[in-house]
Automatic annotation (TrEMBL):
GO terms for biological process: DNA integration; DNA transposition. PANTHER family: TRANSPOSASE, TRANSPOSASE INSI FOR INSERTION SEQUENCE ELEMENT IS30A-RELATED. Keywords: DNA recombination, DNA-binding, Transposition. Residues 148-283 form the Integrase catalytic domain. Required for the transposition of the insertion element. Belongs to the transposase IS30 family. It comes from Pullulanibacillus camelliae. Gene3D superfamilies: Homeodomain-like, Ribonuclease H-like superfamily/Ribonuclease H. The keyword Secreted does not apply. This is IS30 family transposase. Residues 45-71 are annotated as: Disordered.
Amino acid sequence: MEYSHLSTFERGRLDALHQLGKSCREIAKELNRHHSTIARELKRNKAENESYSPEKAQAAYHERRTHSRPHGKWNEEIAQEIEEKLELTWSPEQIAGRLKASMPSFKPIYRWLYKGRISKGNLTVLRQKGKRRRPRETRGRFNIGRSIKQRPKEIRKREQFGHWELDTVVSSRGQSKGCMATFAERKIRFYLAIKILNRTAQSMKEALTQVVTKLPKGTFETATVDRGKEFALHKEIETHLDVSVYFADPYSSWQRGTNENANGLLREFFPKASDLSKVTQRY
């Protein structure tokens, strides 16, 4: 088996299994990894008297990669990561956005693909034939709102309770518009999933209102989200619910790693082929 680095989702599962008291060999079996990989991951990312944190481990991984590779140059490690993303139907633009520390442009990815240096030149891994000169997002995005760069440092360090990450989990394409609004608290990693009718800004606002009003005052101070259209009513949310909204950078899901990890675990119960309109809130 060819070596590949642990993903954000795998680090989340590793953390959950480790907290359940599983051994490195047991965790390795669950993740289909070698036990030495698990042992090395835990040793490398556990400071003295501190527990393993998948978010800190992922951030440290990105930091190591930033300093370990020249920008935009082909090598086996980056080629393997690009191939993995292409197999998952990511576009070269999305991949470049995710690997921006070492891949400042999507153009080399197309060039390497056409030359056969990645994926053996198999162009069927592209979702559309030919080059796309800019990222395309079919569900709508916007550029206004407060950037995550303006978020206070204590939120990033998880020092205070009451700071959440939000997202949506959707039904399989063509199944229905039913989806779930998901909420993850950054410090204690408490997770909620609420069924909503569709992925509209109004549905998300109603779900968030439901959460904020049912939880004790001071429980919901901030929300970190992506720039999907479901968060277009962020100004109303800030005004009516007194919740500060911060927007993550494009293609930087690791900035909302707590929610991403939890959504991955939710998908184990509701795979991408699921019709979420048929799921009850008490499922």
